[in-house]
Structures are given as C-alpha cells and as structure tokens.
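[job 4471] stage=fold_predict status=RUNNING
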Amino acid sequence: MDDELAALAEAHGVATHYEDANQRRADVDPDVVVAVLAQLDVDASTPEAVRRALAAPKPPPSTIVLREGDVLEETGPGGDRAVELEDGGRVELPAVLPPGYHRLGARTVIVAPRRLPPVPRAWGWMLQLYAMRSAESWGMGDYADLATLARRSATELGAGVLLVNPVQAISPTLPVERSPYSPSSRRFANPLYLRISDLRAYRDADDATRAEIDALRPPNDTELIDYDAVWTAKAKALELLWRRQEHRAPEGELLGFARFCALAEAHGPDWREWPPAQRDPATATPDPERVAFHAWLQELCEQQLAAARRAAHDAGMAVGVVHDLPVGVHPGGADTWAVRDAFAADVTVGAPPDAFSRLGQDWGLPPWRPDRLAEQGYEPFRAVVRSVLRHADGIRIDHVAGLWRLWWIPPGEEPKRGTYVHYDPEAMLAVLTLEAHRAGAVVVGEDLGTVEPKVTEALHEHGMLSSAVLWFQREYDLPDHPLIPPEKWTASAMASISTHDLPTVAGFLAAEHVRVRADLGQFEGPADGEYEAADRERGELLELLKQEGVPADDLVTGFHALLAKVRSVLVLTSPQDALGEKRQPNLPGTTDQYPNWRIPLPVALADLFDDPGVRRAAVALAAGRPPAAGGNGP
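[job 4471] inference complete, writing structure tokens
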C-alpha cells in the first residue's frame, strides 16, 4: 500500500488492513481502497489526485460530543462563544451544557448522560411475533398478540421482558419482504402486524362492512406463514375502513414515508426502477389520497404498539417490550428514497471471509456515510432510534459493531473484496445513550461473532448490555476452548441459549442444524465431520450440566435450568426452545431453500401458557429472578 494512499484512507476512516477471523493481519487491495474512497467523494484514482486530496484543508468537526458534566470551552469556527440550547435558551462559553442536541454556530453539540441506570434482573421471551398465531389473528401473529403475550407472560409465568423481532416498515407491495432484517424503512412500523378487529374504525363500522371484512380473513392453520395472503387480506380490509375516515395530510418525516408508499403501490417496491421523475422526492407526484392512507396506517400501528407496551407495564413487567433494530434497510426502500444523501447508495454492507463463509458475506444493505452523519448532527441515526423507542422499553441493536465500523463492498465486487469503513462510536453511543435516557429504556448490543473487545467494553461503560449465547460461551484463549461456567458469564448482558439464526435446543440435541445444511449442500465435503463436531459439543454441554448439578433427564428443561444460573441480569428464551421445536426460525445463507421467517409455533397462542414444557422452562428461568410485579409466577 502506497504511504500517501494509506494516509488518505486513514484520514477518511477507510481501513487498509484488518485482523481476520483467525486474528491474522489481512491487507486490503489498493484498488478496493480507491473504490471505497470514491464512494466518499474522495478522488484517489492517481498519485496526483491522492496528493491533492491530502493537501486539501480539513474542515473542523461538524459534531462535538460531550458527556454530562463536561465543560465546553472551545468556540465555533467563526469564533462563536454562544451555544443555542435545544430548548431555545442560550449559554455563553465556557459552560457545562445540559443533556441534549445543541448548536454552536454551524456545529451540533451532543451532550449525553455518562451511563444508563442499572437494568433490573428479569427473565423473558425472544419472540418471532409472526409465529404467534391466536384465534383472533389473521394468518400470523400481530400487535394484539404481542399485548396478550406481555400480559399473560407476566401474570401467569412471572416474565419481565419481551424481545420482539424487528417490526419495521415494509413496502406495501407483493411479494411481501419476509425478512424482518431487510425493511423498507427503520423509521416506521409494519402494518402487516395490525389487528383488524381491534381498530376503532372496525368497531364503528356497520354490520355489513364488518361482515365483508370478516370474510377476508385468511386461514390460521397453514403449514407456513403466507405473508402475501395476509397482506392482501389486511390491505383490502383497511381500504374498506379507510373509505369512512376523515383524511388528514401528514407532515414531516411521516409525509416522506407515506409519499414513498403511495408511489411504490403504483411503480413497485424499488424506487431505483421508477420513472425518472418519481425517483426524486423533489419532483415526485404521488396521489395525495394514497399518501393520506399510508400515513393513517402508521397512526394505527402506533396505537397498537403503544397498547402492547401498556399491557406490559400494567402487568408489572420489570423491563417491558424491547424492540429489535436491524443493521440496515433495503437499498431501494423508503429510507434511501427520502433521506438518500445520508447513504452510500452504491455500496453494500457485509462481512469479510471467515470459517462459516469463506467467500465473505454480502447483506445487500446500503451503509450510512460517516461524513454525512457528522455533517447532519447524526439526525438520521437519531430519527431511527427515536422511532423505535416511541413504543418500546428497550432497543436491541443488531450487529452493534456497526456503530464502530462496517464492511463496505464496492460496486461490482465480491464480498471478500471489501474493507472496513469506520464511524465515530462516541457520537453513535452518545445518541443511543441520550435517546434511551429520555425514553427510560434499556439498550442491548448484539456483539456476537468476531467483534473487537473495545465494542463490548464501551457498551458496558455506557450502562448498556452485551449479548451472551450458550452455544458461544467459551474460553477461546484456552486450549480446546472450554465452556464458561454460568457463574463466570458477564453480568451486564442479555443471555440466551440460542438466537433466531442458530439451532433451537431440540434442534441442537438432534443435530437438526447439521442435517438441514447437509441436505442443502452447504458443506464443502462430507457431513461426517460436522456430525462429529455437533456430537462433541453436545457431550461438552452435557458435562457442564453435570458439573452444575442440573438433572439431565429432560434436556430441554435442563438447558433452561443451566441458563437460569448465569450472572447476566437478563435471561431470555424463545417459545420455540421451550416447546421443543426442532426448526430454527432462520437459516443463514439461504433464501427460498429453507422456510426462513415463515415457521409458525406448533401450538396456538392460547395453548402456549399451559404447555408443560413452557411451564417447566418458566419455573427454571424464574429461579433467582423476581417475578413481574403484577404476576404470581408459574
């Protein structure tokens, strides 16, 4: 790597080398660095261009980050000495500023609390909401089912927290995007989860209209969740109710999102394929009636999400409802259309090669530009976090290491031909801390896999929780990577046995995850070695159960009893784990080869709370953790 190119890359946060999954140095090809710099509007195509870019004057930082109690002494670029406070007041420097987003001349000053309050000890569920079908839902779980889960889990089982799969907005088109981790927008909610019969418009409708709507209801007993059938039915029902509503023109961010939805109905889900005039928000001409309709759907989502949160509070949950934030959005979706200047639109995010993916991974999601985030005072990130916390008691940040760096793949390149681009973690964490403080919410970072230690350390420093999963809790610095006993797990963590991307308890015990991947040809050679590895891991875990004095006659319950012994403040399991379901919700590396995000629970929601396996798991997890204030426990 040329020294001047390396210096230019460092100045813009572009990595010229990194530590790979085997903790060895991996050098990035110079042409990849040049291509990534180009996506940041930095010309490094020739040595002369590199020198010009290095010689260009460096602008002052656009955003200043402080912690509560810090003294701000510096002035603005023009000698400004007065700070305009978020509440409209003015303060002369030097000064200690209150928490908030303030202005010093053209710069944003973010002042955040030093750390969040301690998280209460509790146990609870990790939910795939679509899988929770009830007698009242239409083909898949919905927001009203979330309220039922909160209320009954607290009062009957003593649960104190619910972690919900992402419920961010889709494009209102067919086929429906099934992955909750590829939303059209992270700033708005998914109307696919609306409970039609709970809407005031439905209750106020005449008998004939209600009968017409009831007749649209799709079956609840399909083998797999049929998203297209559910959305088609709910969209028709909502249209019938909309005819009787007063129309209001939306404003602000909601207006931009609703305009996208109205255009998507007419031209498809990807704005990059729309007619040229419609691709630009400044020249687009959506139907005002349809814009108002989609804004109304968001009002309904907010009402039902708020009702689910109230149900958790009223039942006495110690934490409440925690919503999951995906790492990105669809490249042709609502967010990249409405706030496109914050994105590197031609880049996709992924991961470098590792033992599980030797060619690397391309997630197909466009990253934020770190320079644009700073220029805009991190408002795009602030808006996303605020939107989640409007109806949540906590937020889980998927791939939290992305607040530090993301693997950028330049246009036309393979996943392995990328590099890391760095963000300002102090600014990103300040936004998270400030927004969570204002919402009284907990923050959980998903720091699984190959993650730099400083990520987990910073989470804990800010009063946030990291993640701990039984399958991965090993001493990787010791020979043979022994399992970590429960008493040595991190206290500042949300602990679980598995995740939606990993085998369930029953699936792990039966090596179902190996069988499925072998059947799909995901292994380079014979699967014998994979079966042997799974059997060895199973033996190690059974030995850990024995060491901890946990009975092994019922292994599903035994693993939950083992989880209950960990030091972590939050312990979560999934209904799939407690029920002994062998199929995991998602199998990474597949799309239609496996029924990702479409597998319903094997029991109806009403039967979940009386299932013997669920009761045994709840009893085990409640040990050592106080029951919800309004419940009696199992």
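[job 4471] summary: The first strand starts at residue 17 and ends at 19.
[job 4471] exit 0
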